[in-house]
Amino acid sequence: MYQEVIDDINKLYHKFNPAFPFDYKFLDQDFQEQYVAEKRIAFLSRYFALIAIIISSLGLLGLAAFSAEQKLKEIGIRKVNGARISEVMAMLNRDFIKWVAIAFGFATPIAWYIMHKWLENFAYKTNLRWWIFAMAGVSTLAIALLTVSWQSWRAATRNPVEALRYE
């Protein structure tokens, strides 16, 4: 059916303008071509974000291991004096929570501005809601706590005698 209509329009076009070729596009195909680049960027962003999260978690794990090793004697003394595992873990995790919160405070306005400018290019705009950034902060904090808490638990459950043996 479409082809018959296109052939009729082609005949009519050549009747009035025979010097130029008849070139046509469907509007839905034109819109689809506009959003192919956006789909590609979304696909690549998803995987690069996953790689960035993994690399960041590995760095955070190394930093937590280093921090726990530096505070090994302090942890041993606290445990000998009756500190519970949860108190030792809270002590080790407190610094990391603080740094994640500071980083989130810096990143949120920058991310809002970049996303706002990116969304201006679309015909139908959506508003950026506060809960999107809150969810990003909570998920970042959860990933950081999972990464750091594992190392903190290992340090908190060690035998304090090993840390204080040579003192």
Write structural notes for this entry:
81% of the residues lie in helices and 0% in strands. The model has no long low-confidence stretch (mean pLDDT 87). The chain is mainly α and 167 residues long. The chain is built from 6 helices and no strands. It has one domain.
**Could you tell me the mean pLDDT?**
87
How many individual β-strands? Answer: 0
Oligomer: single chain
What structural category characterises the helix and strand content?
mainly alpha
The total tally of domains equals 1
Shape: rod-shaped
Number of helices: 6
Order of helices and strands: HHHHHH
Helix content: over 70%
What integer value in Å does the Rg equal?
29 Å
Spans of at least 5 consecutive residues whose pLDDT stays below 50 are: none
Please summarize the sheet with the most strands.
none
CA(first)-CA(last) distance: 91 Å
- Strand content is under 5%
